[in-house]
Amino acid sequence: MELIGRLALDYPRAMYWSGQALVMVAMTTALFILGAGDGVMSAFSGAGEADASGSLLGRISGALILALIIATFWRAASLLPRRQQIIVSWVTLFALLLAFFYSFDLSFEFIAKKIGFLVTQGVVTTLYISVLAIVIATTIALFGAIAKLSKNGLIYGFASFYTSLFRGLPLLMQIYIIYLGLPQLGFVIDAVPAGIMALSLCYGAYMTEIFRAGIQSISKGQWEGATALGLGPNQTMFLVILPQAMRVIIPPTGNQFISMLKDSSLVSVVGVWEIMYLARTLGQTEFRHIEMLITASFIYWMLSICLEFLQSRIEEHFGRSQKRG
């Protein structure tokens, strides 16, 4: 390592080009192993000369050509401003993703025929379950975090048992226990409320630890200053501590919300007509499972992007004091 460091200092340009060559060799090797160069040589050779792409030399040449194209694209994109680089990256990767799905020989007519019901029924149900579960889980997390910070042993014991239990059980098992177990005790509960309850309790346990860590990240001086001003414990928590802790709490909480949106698909096991349930059932009618699953995947992705945007705006709001500082 010391020798490499000295060479880099003494011959920086030579080391730079050596590194570039190694990257090209590694990229060409990876493309060759994946067989990505076969299509390139077929395109250059023409349909009548397919044997050229099948030879070892043809495959290596195709991989090298593709590696050069990628390197040229990367070099050209690197000259753009950062914002345009991000746009180019997204557009390129999205185009590759579409090309990957297009290779499945999908029936777009079937997708167009079914997507309306998938959105009006599935998306509405998924959002209904997710929004209610998010609100309830946030409330549970707030009081759970305060309980875990309590000096009362009983309160702390109840809170720690709750977080340990619901973080330790798989979410699918919690859905089954609530939906099938509560009727054994005489509490008959429908599928949608059971799904909301399971999501709320499970994610409330995870978010309890996030809220607790956020509250503890605020220095004791803030508590002491609020007490000196005559504020009570509740006023100190909700007027002084929590507004500052939100800057730490929001990013991981936003990730939990996105995970909850996707995990809402698990409530389909008890017959809730959300996105995943409808994607499976609609696909079964004409044995077009992959079309509906890909459509559902894109719907989940679009909903997640909306949550990511909302999260970034909330982070920006609570981070304004840091920018001013």
Give the CA-based shape.
Answer: flat
Instruction: Tell me the CATH superfamily of the largest domain.
Output: MetI-like
Distance between the termini: 42 Å
Our count of domains comes out at: 2
Helix content: over 70%
Per CATH, which architecture of the largest domain? Orthogonal Bundle
H/E element order: HHHHHHHHHHHHHHH
CATH class designation of the largest domain: Mainly Alpha
CATH overall fold name of the largest domain? MetI-like fold
Q: What's the β-strand tally? A: 0
| Count of helix runs | 15
- List the uncertain runs: 47-53
- Overall pLDDT level: 84
Structural class, please?
A: mainly alpha
Biggest β-sheet: count, sense, barrel?
none
From the alpha carbons, calculate the radius of gyration and give it in angstroms: 27 Å
What percent strand?
Answer: under 5%
Topology:
Blueprint lengths: L1 H9 L1 H23 L2 H9 L4 H5 L1 H23 L3 H21 L5 H41 L4 H16 L2 H11 L9 H26 L3 H9 L4 H31 L11 H11 L3 H30 L1 H5 L1
What does this 3D model show about the protein?
With 325 residues, the chain is an all-alpha fold. It folds into two domains: 2-81, no CATH class; 110-324, Orthogonal Bundle (MetI-like fold). Helix content is 83%, strand content 0%. It contains 15 helices and no strands. It has helices spanning 2-10, 12-34, 37-45, 50-54, 56-78, 82-102, 108-148, 153-168, 171-181, 191-216, 220-228, 233-263, 275-285, 289-318, 320-324. Helix 7 (108-148) runs antiparallel to helix 8 (153-168) and helix 10 crosses helix 12 (233-263). It starts with a helix and ends with a helix.
